């Protein structure tokens, strides 16, 4: 966004959509009661459920690394509006693949896109489930709240940075509004629950190595202690390194990860678990594009590095003229020239630790307590084409076509996040087949975001991956936010008759955030010759609160193979915060030079209401040895949609953040899976979604627009997925193909992204034991098999109309990745 041509984006937080629940077998310490169905993961393959006698609750996870649970229900029947994806399913994909990418390629209604084969580029990742984005879906790891799963870590940590994918035992996706016991201040319509594997009872380890296109490699190693003493102490420690050159332009992306888990039984009725996860992402970014930039200059167009003279020339044209460089007349606009820069990158580090205690207080009363901390830091940014490095004078275009001076500088944001919190859950197996559960969550989060400028020189630019120390450079502004979140839930799961359960409950959620601009030095930079521009400082507090958010669900298994279920719930989402310059938050991008941001914030505060959704889903599932079929219908009513828009008269506009209406959504997901012979499974699914805005009278740039009847941006109305999985002895083959229909990229639906087909294939073979190595396994995978040129990830807000928003990322081309691994 340039200061000369502000492209105010209507950043409606994606409309909520109800997603089909993904039922993951519960943790073992959460079941084994006559009042609650035994997890189907404990049943023999194809065996019918039988009555379960009362027994003491287990203290080890029922989700083991060797468990073979399939999404289609071959080895486990999904329960209600939930679906499970376990290690067996994840093993079908390239080692290290983003878990959200696995979900997307396995389930209807989900869509994940990125710019790299592993799906680890946090800036370019986009994940939707029935219209909800990853920033609107609750996420937990072993019950630890993960917060927003977006690009930056302002109030949480992405699962790819919290834990190594190989150490996940499985994950569930909960349909509808998500479970009441999912602790999240962002949840509007669905919940992802990740479960880590436990240390093994026998000492050993695992090792794998992958190599691929663009000098990609991945190393993973894990050591398990085995049971160390009579009390049952055991632990593991893991390490992973993933690295690849960019598939276009210069630079690389590197991810270093480590995690460790310790399990200590406490007598026959308790268990303590300690967890630590570390992630270090160093990434050169891919350039985000407009649709025109992609179509006119091709998929390989990106940052201008290593041509430094060209970078200075294009920065001069963008900042000091309204023209385009010679040869680009009629190809690019002046705004699009300004989108090109020397480089962009980020460095992200995250530390997540927790202590969990599970105790059977009595035979029927059980307690789960988690205390956790999450510390993260980030250095974000790149070349800013709209400021000038002051030491070299005012830039000028020379007769030979070069530029004097340096019409650009490095802008970096130094960010720090610290989360501290705890959760407490109690479950009571009450008389008359009732399981009563309740719990609470408290979290304090501090977020610091300081922007600084660093001069480039006439001869050379900065080092892209420099880890600039805090306190260096020229400070532009400093932001600090502090939030306190509290959530309480209470629910009763009543088994009416065998196979029929009714859940009723509610939650209360409140979050108060205080903060914003601490210091702003724009005028000082202008005086020093940086040619800086208005940065919109604002500060204050906001509270989002819902005292009674109800949730009802029903599930009935009958005639052995049939199941019907429904789910109804209300949710509330707290206000986003990030920085004073970022649109789409209550504190960011407000006002203009004549109407200060603080004035607009104070006016908004009087009328803002937090976003709410009502989600409804009804479904039917049939499951037997040879066929699984599901049909889900869902409906969502989305109230108090918040957006950054421009308001006012045509000659006196300003940016504001306000409620702009509501949205409704209807959709259907259909899945069918056949298993005609042993080892072969063929799955097809189809998704239809009709999400429509209902708001009228949007004031954009001094003109009124109506959004009524317009489709939700960036989410396809149709998706088709096919998957073929075949296993014969130690050999396994997996092929999946997805069709994604066109997606509107503006709120007025006047520009669309074209549809595309995307396919992937993997082939692996387990040689069994060879020498001291057990399960020696090789695999070979191809991503984007047909080398489709398509727009994948989208970052940031959509425009009201027109192709003037450079927030699109091109999907990675075809890549080959081979792996070899073994257990010891």
Distance between the termini: 54 Å
Radius of gyration: 26 Å
- Average pLDDT taken over every residue: 86
Note the total helix count.
8
Bin the strand percentage.
over 45%
Count of β-strands? 40
Instruction: Assign an overall shape.
Output: globular
**Fraction of residues in H or I helices:** under 10%
Oligomer: single chain
Provide the fold topology.
Elements: E1 82-86, H1 87-90, H2 99-106, E2 110-113, E3 126-129, E4 132-133, E5 138-141, E6 144-145, H3 159-162, E7 168-174, E8 191-196, E9 204-212, E10 216-224, E11 234-245, E12 252-265, E13 270-284, H4 291-297, H5 308-320, H6 334-339, E14 344-360, E15 365-384, E16 396-397, E17 403-404, E18 409-430, E19 434-455, E20 474-497, E21 500-520, H7 522-528, E22 539-558, E23 562-573, H8 597-605, E24 611-623, E25 627-639, E26 642-649, E27 652-659, E28 663-674, E29 680-693, E30 698-700, E31 703-705, E32 718-728, E33 731-740, E34 743-744, E35 752-753, E36 756-766, E37 774-783, E38 791-794, E39 808-810, E40 815-823
Parallel strand pairs: 5-8
Antiparallel strand pairs: 1-7, 2-3, 3-4, 5-6, 7-8, 9-10, 9-40, 10-11, 11-12, 12-13, 13-14, 14-15, 15-18, 16-17, 18-19, 19-20, 20-21, 21-22, 22-23, 23-24, 24-25, 25-28, 26-27, 28-29, 29-32, 30-31, 32-33, 33-36, 34-35, 36-37, 37-40, 38-39
